[in-house]
Amino acid sequence: MGNGIDVSRSGSVQVLRFNRPDKKNALTRDMYRTLVAALEEGDASDAIAAHVFFGLPDVFTAGNDIGDFLTFSGGAEGQADDAMRFIMALPMVKKPMLAGVAGLAVGIGTTMLFHCDLVYAAPGATFKTPFLDLGLVPEAASSLLAPRLMGPQRAFELLALGAPFSAERARDAGFVNEIVPPGQLEVKVLAAAGSLAGKPPEALAIARRLLRGDQKDIVACLSKEGLLFKERLKSPEAREAFQAFLEKRLPDFSKAKAGA
Q1: Exposed/middle/buried for residue 254 (C-beta within 10 Å: 0-12, 13-18, 19+)
Q2: With left for phi above 0 and alpha for psi between -120 and 50, is residue 140 left, alpha or beta?
Q3: CB-CB contact of 175 with 129 (8 Å)
Q4: Mean pLDDT across the stretch 114-131?
């Protein structure tokens, strides 16, 4: 696509690849728009049976582009809307979603995995959600899905403490299915997606709906988190964190508290 998201096909599997290596696959507004459009078009197409997310060999995604966050914190309302559309789209996707994670998966790069049906990781994969370090709050219904999946203490460690989870810890926590030997990750994910694509589509769709359950609480959580997240993006703490990140220094939250 040329905007940081490559959309391709492997048989009846749609492959969405984060490909912005100069910025560690950090996600921009344009990238979010491409992802949403691809998911919607793939769901509507009889030729697509599943969606797969990949990054690059050394990074899945560094999360949202900090420059976009800083622009929103300065008052550009549209900056957060495209990210929110992607987040709101995730629980609405009708066909299976799989992910193959190698390297860093930061922020939305981790929380989006809670909406995937199968997740495979390379041995060196690292999962991290530094929301609080940026003056923000969890998103993508992770405040609901993570405690439900891994228990409140481990969820707090991931989402509030911001502790990095190795591939092994992510597997033990329940949001990674399997750690795949180096060089075999994409083959494994595409094989699993291909296996799903070969199953009776109506039966697969019904089974997936049964397993995922009622999505109303997830949508409600997404909306609640989204409002708080947008509020926090404009907070003095967030502005200080974003500016410090771009200036490659430690944030001074006492200054943010003083409104300086």
Answers
A1: exposed
A2: left
A3: no
A4: 98
Only one residue has tokens 């094989």, namely: 191
Rg over CA atoms, the chain: 18
Residue type, 146: A
Tokens 């009846």 sit at which residue?
A: 12
Q: How many CA atoms lie less than 13 Å away from 66 in the CB half-sphere?
A: 20
- As a whole number of angstroms, the distance between CA 194 and CA 10 comes to 9
Question: What pTM did the predictor assign?
Answer: 0.94
The answer, yes or no, to whether residue 163 has pLDDT greater than 90, is yes
Tell me what the mean pLDDT of segment 23-39 comes to. Answer: 96
Provide the sign of the torsion angle of the four alpha carbons 239, 91, 52, 103, taken in this order: positive
Do the strands 165-166 and 126-128 form a parallel or antiparallel pair, or are they unpaired?
A: antiparallel
Separation of alpha carbons 119 and 89, rounded Å: 18
Q: Residue 55 burial by CB count (10 A; 0-12/13-18/19+): exposed, middle or buried?
A: buried
What is the number of helices (H) and of strands (E) in the chain?
Answer: 12, 10
Can you say whether the dihedral through the CA atoms of 125, 144, 156, 231 is positive or negative? Answer: positive
For the chain, the average pLDDT equals: 93
Q: Which two tokens stand for residue 154?
A: 């481990």
Q: Which tokens hold the place of 259?
A: 């409104």
Stretch 139-160: mean pLDDT: 98
Distance CA 27, CA 23 (A): 9
* Residue 182 predicted with pLDDT over 90: no
pLDDT at 260: 46
- Of the pLDDT bands very low, low, confident and very high (cuts 50, 70, 90), residue 2 is low
